[in-house]
Amino acid sequence: MNFFIAEALGTMLLIIFGDGVVANVVLKKSKAENSGWIVITTGWALGVSVAVYVTGWASGAHLNPAITIGLLSYGQISSTMALWYIGGQMAGAFLGAVLVWLYFLPHWAVTDDSSKKLAVFCTSPAIRSFGPNFFCEFLGTFILVVGVLGITSTYNNLSNGLAPFLVGILVWAIGLSLGGPTGYAINPARDLSPRLAHAILPIAGKGKSDWKYAWIPVFAPILGGIAGTWFYNSILPILVEAQNIMKSGG
To answer: At what angle do helices 65-73 and 216-248 cross, to 10 degrees?
Structure first.
């Protein structure tokens, strides 16, 4: 239960900042309207860092079922723990989306474009092609997980206080470099729970929730997370050996 609460809190904060910055940029009469992709990617990145700082010391701040399932697949956490983690992530993401809806309550009715309203809650591809869209989400999550495992590796000798900031930088880099084709969900909870909130909430003129696409930002990140976890742990002994050779002077 403690892990559930920590992951719910962290994921809620992530979504408040992440969905919040999208709402700031796309909803009509927001003072940040049309401020662009740099603002969106920066808001998401800073939101990740804040969320990890708040709960990382308590649960490790997975905040993402793709990370949790990846670690589960490699035997690094138990199935019981994984269920608590994923439950917390899904609940926190839903609550965060609801709070963003309330925060921007007057702006929904004055925003005519239903696709922009949906974009606040979840992702959609710039060009809808399921194969390439799946690959983008798979590879983006693969890079996320490899990056997170690398940053948090004890072999880096980083201060514990620096890692959350660097994870935010990683998410920022993914958004800036790879986010354009699909909106870089790279997190099933980040996409699925807010999409469900969009479907349930009484949002004026909201349109459809695009459930035909919804499976991609769920299953592609899960597979990418598993692949990233196995890849990093497979090459870790090689990296350690390279480090030892370097220290010994060859």
So the answer is: 60
30, 31, 36, 39: CA torsion to nearest 10: -110
Determine contact, residues 133/180, Cβ cutoff 8 Å: no
Per-residue pLDDT of the chain (250 residues; tens, 9 = 90+): 788 999 999 999 999 999 999 999 999 999 999 999 999 999 999 999 999 999 988 888 899 999 999 999 999 999 999 999 999 999 999 999 999 999 999 999 999 999 999 999 999 999 999 999 999 999 999 999 999 999 998 888 777 789 999 999 999 999 999 999 999 999 999 999 999 999 999 999 999 999 999 999 999 999 999 999 999 999 888 887 777 777 777 6
CATH number at residue 95: 1.20.1080.10
**Into how many domains does the chain fold?**
1
CA distances, 32 to each of 37, 40, 84, 156, 188 (Å): 12, 10, 37, 38, 27
Alpha helices, H only, 60-78? 65-73
Cα distances (Å, whole numbers) of residue 16 to 41, 92, 96, 144, 196: 14, 10, 5, 20, 15
- Measured CA angle at 180 (ends 151, 26), to 5 deg: 105
What's phi and psi for 32, nearest 5 deg? -100, 10
The C-alpha angle 193, 16, 229, rounded to 5 degrees, equals 60
Domain that holds residue 104: 2-248
Q: In this structure, what token pair is assigned to residue 58?
A: 């308590």
